[in-house]
Amino acid sequence: MPQLHSETFAGALRAAAGFKPAGVGIEERLAQIPAIESLADLPEGTPVWIRADLDVKDRDGMIGDDPRLASLHETLEYGRKQGWRMLLLGHRGRQPDRTLEYVHQKLKATEPGCGPFIEDWFDEHAETLTGVAVKGVESLKPGQFLLFENVRKYDFEMRLWTTGEAQLGLVTDHFARVAGALRQGATVYINDAIAAGSKDFSTTALPLAMGRTALGVFARRELTEHAAKARDAGLVIFSGMKLDKLRHLHGIVQRGRVEVILAGGSLAMALRKAAGEIAGTEVSIGAAGEIANKDEKAFVPASAIEKARQLLIEAEAKGIRVVLPVDFVADDGTVVEDLSAEQWQRDIGPATSAMFDEVAMAWAAETERKTAFHNGVMGQFENSTFAAGTDAIVATLKGLKEAGVAVYVGGGEGRAALERFGSLDDVTHAFTAGGTVLKVLADRPLPFLEALAAQATATAD
Fold first, then answer.
1. If you write DSSP's letter for every residue of 18-35 in order, what string do you get?
2. Which CATH entry fits the domain spanning 6-224+445-460: 3.40.1050.10, 3.40.50.1260, 3.30.365.10, 3.40.50.2300?
3. What's the pTM value of the predicted model, to 2 decimals?
């Protein structure tokens, strides 16, 4: 089977790593990538790599009904019917020592044809699959699958994360050798890991060494159907502690499709401080703005405030309304309009919840867009003292759907909160991959799509 030659591999890796402008939107990228049905002509017994979403939580070594594992079912079922021998790759968190053994046990109990779990499957010194791995692949019968241990246990998997453009050439040859070595296992590759939006080797480099690639059943549906529709959101509700979301929110503003933004969490702290600076007024964001707390997770640095300022200026220029909290639940449980230097905000207050609901429902009554997107949570909802804001926003989402709005919710905490305070039926769709969907809405290229498209278009030429 053909594979990308060295020069093409290097160029494709540069694009997948984000060092080369994508030049096209996600719709065009998806059109370039084959669907799993394009592989229907593969002979029975063909080995196939499947990059899966295996980053799931366990409770005392047990995994419940996890949506990410459930989402893999359709791709596995298709492979079973085709008689493929499937090789599953994935990770759990960022820690290389976290095992996938519990995931294997769960799949063994829920999916037919579960084969062995291979712990030490790659020899980094020899840059080759181990004998145990090769035998594991050969032992599979048509329709069966095996699971390899956490791919992040190997240094190559996350090496691209810390590689700058100037150093990319130093890793390209290494990646090409490792990817070529994995052809011992299979030369066909399917990505069904929509949550794996980082620059992992297994999603950016491995596809480039394959003869044929495709997007899995679940990943394609999430992107072409649900994410594509969420991109048309006129109302965006954004919250959470991760300040890097400012970049995604700014991307959404730059697209110019959104009409109203409701913001909470640390994100709102940065925006609130920036709004004060623009207006020429002093605004306190409490302990989050005190330099003595710079090592705290919820600290809001000056760089974030500057990004928030630029976002607000562009939003105003585009006629986008940004609505910020007017009261907060502080870490001592009190409700305040202004935070003292000792107080951390832990939730939006009742006046803000009421205002957000009023603004959202008024927008729904007036807009022609009729699509809303929500990501994150308003506070530390696991603690009942700080759960009211998130509970209220879930009720708002339900109200929006009842008002005829298509409501989409990002993965992670947003989905967890929806299930705690409401149900999945209260919205149109809840994603399992919040970060990836944010990139889609912000027009950020997805490394795994760039790699799949590069391989597909190069081998088609």
1. TSS---S-HHHHHHHSPB
2. 3.40.50.1260
3. 0.91
